[in-house]
Amino acid sequence: MIDKKIQGKKNRAAGARFERKVRADLESKGWIVDRWGNNVKLEVCKTLNGKKINYITNFLPDAHHELVPAKSTRFRSNTHGFPDFIAFRDFAIPMCAGYEDCKEIMGVEAKSNGYLKPEERAKCKWLLKNKIFSKILIASKGEKRGEIKYKEEKNGSQRKS
Predict the structure, then answer these.
(1) Rounded alpha-carbon distances, angstroms, from residue 10 to 15, 60, 105, 146
(2) Which among 154, 88, 96 is positioned nearest to 121, based on CA atoms?
(3) What is the pLDDT of residues 138-158, one digit of tens each?
């Protein structure tokens, strides 16, 4: 019989190992990576008759959502923002003399299986709509051992990058 407490510890440790691998992989590709310390607070809206509208299935563009500092859920652990990392690097724009210091900025979420929960998908949609990030990558494990695949999240739908 599987002990849920032991299984939870193993899963948490495996997730932390995968996040470290993703961070090391991005840094080896020339990205500057840091932990993202903010989270999107999704508001639950009510209709005129008092029914609650589920923000996950019915993403409302006019609803009041906001970016708030992420809270730590466990004693002395890192904050758990969404997405996990912010990554940026310099890039050059040809024939634009006034813009020497341009940065490419993206959010990176590490998911072992590669799938986002509906709540996380709604947060992605809000972050992209409000131009917090130009793109959000979902890092997942590949078929080969140690391989990391990245999918780009665009307005709630995933695309391979």
Answers:
(1) 9, 37, 32, 18
(2) 154
(3) 999 999 998 999 999 876 555
In the CATH hierarchy, which top-level class contains the domain 4-160?
Answer: alpha beta
Cα–Cα dist 13/6, whole Å = 11
If we measure between CA atoms, which residue out of 132, 137, 33, 24 comes closest to residue 87? 33
Chain CA centroid to CA 61, Å: 19
Q: What does the pLDDT look like over 42-61, one tens digit per residue?
A: 776 666 566 666 655 555 55
